[in-house]
Amino acid sequence: MAFGGIQGMVAIERKPEPPPETFLSRANGKTFEAVRRLLDASGQRPYISSSLLSDTEASALGVPPSVISSVQDLSRALVDVLNRGGKGWRGYALAICCEIVGGNFDRLEDWLAFSEVLHAGSLIVDDVEDGAKLRRGGPACHLVYGTPSAINSGTLAYFQVQFLIENSGLSDGQRAAIYKEYVDLLRMAHIGQGLDLGLSITSPLLLDLSDAGMAIVEEHVCVSHRLKTGVPFRAFARIGATLGNGSTEEIGALGDFFLALGGAYQAIDDVINVAGLMNNAKERGEDLRTGRITLPVVHFLRAAAPAQRKVLLAELQAATADAPTHGRLLEKLAGSGVLDLCRAQARQAVRSELRALERTFPQAKLQPLDQFATLVIEDYY
């Protein structure tokens, strides 16, 4: 999985880079190997592994094998979405940050599952909240297993990673720091998701369509991005640097960079929802159909003359129920130039934080981060 393979998983010394698809394929393979190990740590339980309910815990709580076998389906939705694959590159944030501060990630490869399992669980819950129809090339899990089971399976994923924290031979200081990052991640991401759910095209925020009012709407969108996606990225980076025994300054600087990268990634995700993916793995225009206020929508409204904004807002509201309006408005959004603006803002935010990292790390050490950031925000995923 290494860029050049000279130190653990991450090459600090610059080597000729493989094509993005090659790197992502390697990252994906390593990540899902780790996921399989986590989900079936005992080698015997197909859905409730020892990483979720250990034999010791089951014995202490009086949970007999017959009951365990009868509730194996608790994680079916999670296993399903994980088996569909995915990009599998989020764990690389842990790996690269571990090794940039001098750690060796080879002995810690099981941690690649940490971010992927959390992410898969959040996708299941997000799809319920958004009324999504597709996920990773198949029907959203709540359409297959029902909403109650999907929610339970998705939230259960948040606790499955505890096995990694408790079984990685961490020092007391490392364990305490990682638990704090982990709990902060869950709290902030839920706040961000809650703010996102309030960003509806019928929101009172859109009662004021003046330039000042639109600036406030954009601020809400960006804060939502920062909390629901930026903070998890920051946590993965800080956890990786903690695993590598980084200094407080190094852990903080890497966290700041990945906070910006996560926000940029979410902005690009909003762009892709309008532009679509080549493999149609996600429904194009889903945000428009569900009436979400996204960064492209904000820029679309801001670009219009104040007198025209009410007309456009009425069209956006109509697009949630009328297919022809949805199709027409989707193409108008895609061709308006706002997608390029979102991409440019994302790139600028990441470049700025990358330059700030030079105050903490030699520039040569930052080259893998530069390459990784390019993969994340240039549509390679």
Instruction: Output the helix-strand order.
Output: HHHHHHEEHHHHHHHHHHHH
- Subunit organisation of the chains: single chain
Main sheet: strands, sense, barrel: 2 strands, antiparallel
> Considering DSSP H and I runs of 4 or more, what fraction of the residues is helical?
55-70%
CATH topology of the largest domain: Farnesyl Diphosphate Synthase
Q: How many helical stretches?
A: 18
Task: Return the average pLDDT rounded to an integer.
Answer: 84
Report what the structure shows.
This protein has helices at residues 20-39, 55-60, 65-70, 76-83, 91-100, 112-130, 141-145, 147-160, 162-166, 172-197, 211-243, 248-275, 286-290, 295-303, 306-318, 323-334, 338-357, 367-377; strands at 134-135, 138-139. It has 381 residues and is mainly alpha-helical. The protein has two domains: 1-169, Farnesyl Diphosphate Synthase; 171-381, Farnesyl Diphosphate Synthase (Orthogonal Bundle). Strands 1-2 form a two-stranded antiparallel ribbon. α4 (76-83) crosses α6, α5 runs antiparallel to α6 (112-130) and α11 (211-243) packs across α12 (248-275). The radius of gyration is 21 Å and the shape is globular. The two termini are 16 Å apart.
Write the layout of secondary structure elements.
Elements lengths: L19 H20 L15 H6 L4 H6 L5 H8 L7 H10 L11 H19 L3 E2 L2 E2 L1 H5 L1 H14 L1 H5 L5 H26 L13 H33 L4 H28 L10 H5 L4 H9 L2 H13 L4 H12 L3 H20 L9 H11 L4
Antiparallel strand pairs: 1-2
Structure keywords:
381 residues; disordered N terminus; mainly alpha; single chain; Farnesyl Diphosphate Synthase; two-stranded antiparallel ribbon; 2 strands; 1% strand
